[in-house]
């Protein structure tokens, strides 16, 4: 499995994080999908694709699909998706390639470590900092562990890989999702429904560079309500329930039948 490409989505607020990633992935074809409403700057990437925001916000699902098409046009048969905030560990590329050789019919998910502010990004420092997020399985390096059906909602688009054949068979991400939230879990549910294996890839470590966040993400409240309703219509359950319940406790939203809506002021 020698023909691969790394696909990344980015906009201006994450540009410096992206540049760190591009430096770390020199020698591997890179596709950057620029998702802001401005023009992309000069980037050290083999392909730069523009997917501007839609009426409801950033088009993350459409951007990943566009990135996959651009990577395939470069000759890639293995697609490695990395969030713009993430830098790959020194073994990520090889671990994903080896896993794809063993499981060409699967979607592959490596562990993600969240770095503190001003963390060093050299290989030795990254190895020393490795502490995968506890919410997801992280088998020992070199171990491949098949996900149980109940684990599919743990899929993150921060770092994953799959062959172009699997990508085409699933149809990529549902482009009806715009703005923040829902499209990752929707993709995972589509994988589970199609019987596509999901494999936890030990040692395919990615490292998420620090930036300020809020929990729950108040700036995305309306996106979460809109995309959550779309998801519920499709799958008969709501995603992101932890955030929704936090918004509800704060009095911002209220339950209505089987869903949520903004609370009356």
From TrEMBL:
InterPro entries from the UniProt entry: Galactosyl_T_C (IPR027791), Glyco_trans_2-like (IPR001173), Nucleotide-diphossugar_trans (IPR029044)
UniProt domain Glycosyltransferase 2-like: residue ranges: 49-113
Transferase recorded as keyword: yes
Pathway(s) served: Cell wall biogenesis; cell wall polysaccharide biosynthesis
Pfam families: Glyco_transf_7C, Glycos_transf_2
Annotated ranges, domain Galactosyltransferase C-terminal: 150-203
Keyword Glycosyltransferase: yes
GO molecular function: glycosyltransferase activity
Keyword vocabulary terms for this entry: Glycosyltransferase, Transferase
Top-level taxon of the source organism: Bacteria
The family this protein is said to belong to: Belongs to the glycosyltransferase 2 family.
Protein name in UniProt: Galactosyltransferase-related protein
């Amino acid at each position: 499995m020698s023909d691969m490409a790394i696909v990344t989505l980015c906009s201006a607020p994450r540009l410096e994080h992206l540049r760190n990633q591009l430096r770390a992935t020199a020698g591997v074809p890179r596709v950057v999908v620029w998702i802001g409403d401005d023009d992309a700057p000069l980037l050290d990437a083999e392909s730069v694709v523009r997917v501007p925001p839609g009426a409801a916000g950033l088009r993350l699902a459409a951007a990943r699909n566009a990135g996959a098409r651009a990577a395939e046009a470069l000759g890639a048969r293995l697609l490695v998706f990395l969030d713009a905030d993430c830098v790959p560990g020194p073994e990520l590329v090889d671990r994903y390639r080896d896993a794809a050789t063993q499981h060409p019919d699967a979607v592959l998910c490596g562990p993600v470590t969240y770095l503190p502010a001003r963390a060093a990004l050299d290989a030795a420092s990254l190895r020393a900092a490795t502490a995968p997020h506890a919410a997801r399985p992280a088998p020992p390096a070199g171990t491949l562990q098949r996900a149980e059906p109940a684990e599919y909602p743990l899929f993150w688009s921060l770092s994953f890989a799959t062959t172009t054949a699997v990508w085409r068979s699933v149809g990529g991400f549902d482009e009806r999702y715009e703005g923040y939230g829902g499209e990752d879990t929707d993709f995972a549910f589509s994988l589970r429904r199609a019987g596509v294996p999901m494999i936890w890839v030990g040692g395919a470590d990615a490292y998420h560079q620090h930036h300020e966040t809020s929990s729950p993400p108040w700036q995305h409240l309306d996106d979460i309500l809109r995309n959550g309703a779309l998801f519920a219509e499709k799958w008969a359950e709501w995603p992101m329930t932890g955030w929704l319940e936090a918004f509800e406790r704060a009095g911002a939203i209220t339950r209505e039948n089987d869903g949520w809506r903004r609370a009356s002021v």
